[in-house]
Amino acid sequence: xxxxxxxxxxxxxxxxxxxxxxxxxxxxxxxxxxxxxxxxxxxxxxxxxxxxxxxxxxxxxxxxxxxxxxxxxxxxxxxxxxxxxxxxxxxxxxxxxxxxxxxxxxxxxxxxxxxxxxxxxxxxxxxxxxxxxxxxxxxxxxxxxxxxxxxxxxxxxxxxxxxxxxxxxxxxxxxxxxxxxxxxxxxxxxxxxxxxxxxxxxxxxxxxxxxxxxxxxxxxxxxxxxxxxxxxxxxxxxxxxxxxxxxxxxxxxxxxxxxxxxxxxxxxxxxxxxxxxx
Amino acid sequence: xxxxxxxxxxxxxxxxxxxxxxxxxxxxxxxxxxxxxxxxxxxxxxxxxxxxxxxxxxxxxxxxxxxxxxxxxxxxxxxxxxxxxxxxxxxxxxxxxxxxxxxxxxxxxxxxxxxxxxxxxxxxxxxxxxxxxxxxxxxxxxxxxxxxxxxxxxxxxxxxxxxxxxxxxxxxxxxxxxxxxxxxxxxxxxxxxxxxxxxxxxxxxxxxxxxxxxxxxxxxxxxxxxxxxxxxxxxxxxxxxxxxxxxxxxxxxxxxxxxxxxxxxxxxxxxxxxxxxxxxxxxxxxxxxxxxxxxxxxxxxxxxxxxxxxxxxxxxxxxxxxxxxxxxxxxxxxxxxxxxxxxxxxxxxxxxxxxxxxxxxxxxxxxxxxxxxxxxxxxxxxxxxxxxxxxxxxxxxxxxxxxxxxxxxxxxxxxxxxxxxxxxxxxxxxxxxxxxxxxxxxxxxxxxxxxxxxxxxxxxxxxxxxxxxxxxxxxxxxxxxxxxxxxxxxxxxxxxxxxxxxxxxxxxxxxxxxxxxxxxxxxxxxxxxxxxxxxxxxxxxxxxxxxxxxxxxxxxxxxxxxxxxxxxxxxxxxxxxxxxxxxxxxxxxxxxxxxxxxxxxxxxxxxxxxxxxxxxxxxxxxxxxxxxxxxxxxxxxxxxxxxxxxxxxxxxxxxxxxxxxxxxxxxxxxxxxxxxxxxxxxxxxxxxxxxxxxxxxxxxxxxxxxxxxxxxxx
Lengths: 278, 714
Fold this sequence. Notes:
Chain A is an alpha+beta fold. Chain A folds into two domains: 2-168, 2-Layer Sandwich (Uridine Diphospho-n-acetylenolpyruvylglucosamine Reductase, domain 3); 176-277, 2-Layer Sandwich (Enolase-like, domain 1). Chain A is 31% helix and 26% strand. In chain A, a hairpin with a 2-residue loop joins strand 8 (148-150) and strand 9 (153-154). Chain B has 714 residues and is α+β, with helices and mostly antiparallel strands. Chain B has three domains: 9-119 and 168-262, Aldehyde oxidase/xanthine dehydrogenase, a/b hammerhead (Aldehyde Oxidoreductase, domain 3, Alpha-Beta Complex), CATH 3.90.1170; 269-436 and 567-713, 2-Layer Sandwich (Aldehyde Oxidoreductase, domain 4), CATH 3.30.365.10; 440-553, Aldehyde oxidase/xanthine dehydrogenase, molybdopterin binding domain (Aldehyde Oxidoreductase, domain 4, 2-Layer Sandwich), CATH 3.30.365.10. Chains A and B meet through helix 11 of A and helix 19 of B.
């Protein structure tokens, strides 16, 4: 195991480009430290990035809110910019781990770690967030929904990292919002199911529906098929059996130590129903 | 009823109070256990990793034991370490020590053991449903009339299951052994409840190779809940052996995940209850209880847990025709052990659930049905011990009144008609016999010592430990309040087996009840003997008499006569009583139960320190509610939870508002308090869930996945 603390972005990129070893970026460390301790991560290069200013902070840039990857969850919870523009996002993050972990965990880490249970991802998915991914010579902006490719895997190349998360300033505007994180207790828990939703209604019909689920697939995902089915329908026109059928295509819940797949599936059904009815 | 502040509150806040891992000795090295990862099998080969200098390590196995390879327990059947056949996951195979703790942990992780695997029972139901797994002595309380049940009586027959529970003390198990070859003394610093048990353990394993083991506790003991009753004996034995072999002080502090895996838990139970109830009189006429505990691989202290479980299994009801049998079942899992309540929480979880079952079947309100059957003066326990007070009934009446039970019942019923989510309210009652069961206290013959110094400081020497429950503050208070001595001049000394007489273990809700009341008597006795009005003045004017030592033994009340063979007689001199009402909110979308309010009324006799007592009661109630609701430890097919990420201890956000009231506090006796708050709350959650939804769940805890399965069945 090798620990590196680059002095600046230049040093960081130099290291990434030169070295092809397996590497991990360390910022908050709330997950990586555990993986190192239990041996999931070994013989790897750990690059510390929390001190790099370019990766940190919350700003408004034109029509977007830009959140640096190493920004702590507590910073988002305390941010005036977030409060004014994305109050639903801010409110929902209160259920993130615990106040103690919120001060250390980072938004970029929660995404890059790639856990199916990542708390911020379903929220960011319904807010149409994008990621700014950088390497020494390239910057590319990609939709968060296209970021993950499987369990703990993503589209990033070995010489890239997430610089920031970009959320449209008006992502929540005009929407009814919904977020439910279900776990074995109210704090300090890993979700069994999480569901984020945005909707707006015009003339009794759902004009826009955005739904994203966590802990129900290899990675948190938008439920596009259900969104498509629900759009332009009124509550009375919705056949919930059809919703259940589509959900079966969209999610692949598992039974593990924490919960059961049937439970996960049915709770998801119930939550969608409540989201639409409320 | 004074609220004397805990004497250790400030040093704990400023961090100066020392817990086991804060101690260090010159040349001290670190030890750990290498334990079995196989449930049952023969050890074929132990492969140490390469690239380590084995000469730097001290390694002990059962072959190094100079004394006996059996941990002293009520039933001596558990070895310290195994070298051929392992009987359960987590069984000690080697003790290993090295100066570098990190390197040691890595070495142990990389050490691989080859096993020849044998059939193993690891599933709770597989263990408890099969009578072939019975071991140890069967207990019966036979109070049958021999008459056949009247065919008109309502018959109810149910099986209830309760889970493991993890003690989850803040400070993991830890031990430091310092071998002193010159005096042939093994000094052990322990985080434990029972220093004299640890002494027996060390002297058993070391045999004649030592002259004496001296055990002193760490200043702070970071919680125990029964988990530090017997396991420390095993740990101290292996730590001592490592110190003996290496010639250096050795410290073992378990990693949290190891602690969860290998130490004792609450016994899972299967309790089958069959009742016959007279539908006119609404009285239970006959009961059969089959009380089973999963003891784990060895009996150790399980027979004592079984005894208490059986003795509390009928809950607080007078039933003329009674048959109770209790049995231990063997599995290939770590021995289960002591845990606050000691068999009683399982008993109440089943019987208090069953009472609601009968009440629902007969369409009578659960409170009214309890009232019909509850213990009254003139009734008897199944052991024929007479009921001498109506305090259990008083607790029930008071809690029904203060919780506005009947009004809420109506309110919730109305509310539920128009809501998808449901509100519910449930009752349960409980009691706990103080001190050791039956003749136990007589056998223990506890002794306490007091030294009065030249400056009138009173030093109290008892073996009972303060594990955070405030026992040392309360014990001192019972002494100094009796003779009106200044509190700063009365101190309980750190338990040390060479200085402290054996006042017995810190278990069985006996510390304040037996030792505290003894100290109070002792204070009066010394006062009478010296004939003083004011101790300070007396000491000042009689300086040549001091320092002076006094000793006193506990004398059991002659009314306590118990037939251990037939389970007849007085099992406990004094009982603490309790009743509770719990309100819940059931979330229909997620099948989760939220606790909204918990009302508790307890009779613990005289309350010595209101604040400490309330703290104990609130903590115990929460532990009891969580036992019924969310503390899910073992999942069939998936095994045990690995740590606190998955084992759902409630957080402060999950807490309901907890109301605690003590009644009959004018009693001269301070009765047992430690365990009773844990005994009774769990079934109230289950009963409240029935009130909310009309569904009975007979398996604890009521995790949402279990509720979901029940709802889908209907």
